[in-house]
Design the sequence.
């Protein structure tokens, strides 16, 4: 039995016979199922590319030849055969292997961004660089999924690749017919015709001017190697169309109609005490409320970028299939299409993970906000997500939102305020709205003790002294209340307020801030240009001399880890905030922000 342990790096692969390689594939599958079901992660995508990964590393000589992966979630087999099998059990653990390619881990990993549809653009750039630097002996190989191929950037890149007959790139299309769910649109329909029709009809790739090889059985190593060698020998841009099965070799994944085990949760640790009833997930609270509002709001339609279930739209889609649109992994199109829907008299809800909206900022700014289109953006996974690493944290949305004229932004603190904010957003007809909430459980509802011009007061100062105003943004309410209690122990009067709608900065919040000795803002998002910065600016514009402390995430790419650990590492805990506020009030040292006070995690962030 050829085991992983018997192969030392990709060079060892090329010495194996075909049967030995097939045995190795079985051993890799065993390791994937055993470890990923324990650690959590992307099991289905990796199972689907075991043979493809082996064939790629037997035909091409990485890292001289550069093998690039779109999204990177399917690279566990690649990691295993490029020297990281022994560490594979640390996958997605703090300080352990990243769940995506990592340049710090290996020379075989070139691109780390987990945002889809980018790989062909990297490849186009690399091919041009090799042409200009004379490094024409290095192959450029770009693996892209059928889902990622529905993203606009992929076609921008194909347009350029087709224009570079003297700049060879081997595009490996990993066609498993699915993103999470079956991939939607004309592109998968075309690929299906290529799979089933005789090769009389030209592929779209050939019509663009690229060579096309396939379709090839993506689980037949010999056939794959022959096709890849042929493609590499063409010396021009070529698409190798590989047919694979997501979840291959693990029956529960193969039979999973939802998403073929796209991403599995970690196996829960054995417990002695009964597990407490889980509090509702933010995603489910949103999804159930939107479905409930769908009857009362016939003008509401929902859009997703290939993530219907992950963003909570399943219930709405089940009840209103004609009012639900999956546009593929195409966030830019989703947003401008929503503007079109709004111009047509409807109220679109664009449900998206916060980090993925980054790429549709221009569309939000100039296709939606410029036209004051009543589009509601619902951002899940806002703030620190943690396990999926730097490009998955939703830590830029609050900063981007500050730049959009007329955009109203809500950051609910719990399930009750999420439901309320959604109802309020759907009632806005004269401009865009956005709601943002983190990954995971919405936790217990946090009641207000009073309201003030639409803002929720969560804590009044016992002594009515107006020493500190703690402005809680979204899900940081619990942290703020803990900080307030700690600060009050030092004899200071602390008010905690949750504006609920945090942009534009409410006038009532400025008014409230003017009357306090110090204002502190706490957000699960980037400090730079975030909600706190906007509040600080608004106070300054009102002529306030009140010092403002903003607590949030540093302007860094944060390594993967557990959400709570990352928040703590950057001072977003009651204890850290209290200490910094008390020191600022005591005048001991008001030049230091909490982000500098907090201990940095091992393997300091970039
Ligand atoms: C811009 C962007 N939007 C959404 C996602 C979330 N996402 C991760 S993998 C995936 C599906 C990818 O499908 P495909 O490219 O076919 O790869 P497969 O999982 O089938 O191997 C999606 C939508 C993302 N990573 N990037
Ligand atoms: C690879 C990718 O972008 C998604 O699959 C992401 O991993 C989603 O993660 P969660 O849905 O677990 O937050
Ligand atoms: Mg796919």
Sequence:
């Amino acid at each position: 039995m050829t085991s992983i342990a018997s192969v030392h790096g990709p060079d060892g692969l090329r010495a194996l016979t075909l049967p030995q390689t097939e045995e190795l594939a079985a051993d890799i599958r065993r390791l994937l199922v055993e470890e990923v079901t324990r650690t959590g992660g992307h099991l289905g995508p990796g199972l689907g590319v075991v043979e493809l990964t082996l064939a790629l590393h037997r035909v091409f000589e990485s890292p001289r030849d550069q093998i690039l992966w779109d999204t990177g979630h399917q690279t566990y087999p690649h990691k295993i055969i490029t020297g990281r099998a022994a560490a594979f059990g640390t996958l997605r653990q703090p300080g352990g292997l990243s769940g995506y390619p990592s340049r710090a881990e290996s020379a075989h990993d070139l691109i780390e961004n987990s945002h889809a549809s980018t790989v062909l653009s990297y490849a186009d750039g690399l091919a041009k660089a090799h042409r200009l630097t004379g490094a024409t002996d290095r192959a450029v190989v770009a693996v892209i999924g059928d889902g990622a191929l529905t993203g606009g950037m992929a076609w921008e890149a194909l347009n350029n690749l087709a224009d570079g007959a003297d700049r060879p790139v081997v595009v490996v299309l990993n066609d498993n017919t699915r993103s999470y769910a079956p991939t939607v649109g004309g592109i998968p329909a075309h690929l299906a015709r290529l799979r089933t029709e005789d090769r009389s009809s030209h592929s779209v790739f050939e019509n663009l001017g690229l060579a096309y090889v396939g379709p090839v059985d993506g689980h037949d190593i010999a056939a794959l190697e022959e096709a890849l060698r042929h493609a590499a020998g063409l010396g021009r841009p070529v698409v190798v169309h590989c047919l694979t099965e997501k979840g291959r070799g693990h029956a529960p994944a193969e039979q999973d109609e939802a998403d073929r085990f796209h991403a599995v949760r970690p196996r829960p640790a054995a417990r002695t005490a009964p597990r407490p009833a889980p509090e509702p997930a933010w995603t489910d609270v949103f999804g159930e409320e939107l479905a409930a509002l769908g009857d009362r709001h016939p003008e509401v339609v929902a859009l997703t970028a290939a993530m219907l279930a992950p963003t909570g739209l399943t219930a709405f889609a089940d009840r209103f299939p004609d009012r639900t649109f999956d546009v593929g992994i195409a966030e830019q199109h989703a947003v401008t299409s929503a503007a079109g829907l709004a111009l047509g008299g409807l109220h679109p809800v664009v449900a998206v993970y916060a980090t993925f909206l980054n790429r549709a900022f221009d569309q939000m700014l100039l296709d939606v906000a410029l036209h004051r289109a009543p589009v509601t953006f619902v951002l899940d996974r806002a703030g620190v997500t943690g396990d999926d690493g730097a490009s998955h944290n939703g830590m830029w949305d609050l900063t981007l939102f500050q730049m959009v004229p007329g955009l109203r932004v809500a950051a609910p603190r719990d399930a009750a305020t999420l439901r309320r904010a959604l109802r309020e957003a759907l009632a806005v007809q004269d401009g865009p709205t956005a709601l943002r909430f983190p990954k995971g459980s919405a936790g217990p509802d946090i009641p207000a003790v009073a309201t003030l011009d639409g803002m929720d007061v969560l804590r009044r100062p016992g002594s009515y002294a107006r020493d500190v105003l703690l402005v809680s943004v979204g899900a940081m309410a619990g942290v703020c209340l803990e900080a307030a209690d700690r600060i009050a122990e030092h004899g200071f009067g602390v008010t905690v307020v949750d504006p609920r709608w945090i942009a534009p900065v409410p006038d009532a919040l400025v008014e409230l801030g003017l009357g306090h000795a110090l204002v502190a803002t706490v957000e699960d998002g980037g400090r730079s240009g975030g909600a706190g910065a906007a509040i600080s600016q608004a106070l300054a514009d009102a002529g306030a001399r009140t010092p403002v402390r903003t607590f949030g995430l540093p302007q860094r790419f944060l390594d993967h880890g557990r959400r709570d650990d990352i928040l703590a590492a950057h001072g977003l805990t009651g204890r850290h905030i209290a200490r910094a506020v008390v020191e600022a009030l005591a005048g001991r040292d008001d030049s230091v922000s909490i982000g500098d006070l907090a201990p940095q995690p091992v393997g300091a962030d970039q």
Remarks:
- The radius of gyration is 26 Å.
- The pocket of thiamine diphosphate (ligand 1) is lined by residues 45, 71, 73-74, 114-116, 145-148, 174, 176, 178-180, 246, 262, 305-307, 329, 331, 356 (CB under 6 Å).
- Residues 589-606 have pLDDT under 50 and may be disordered.
- The longest strand covers residues 518-526.
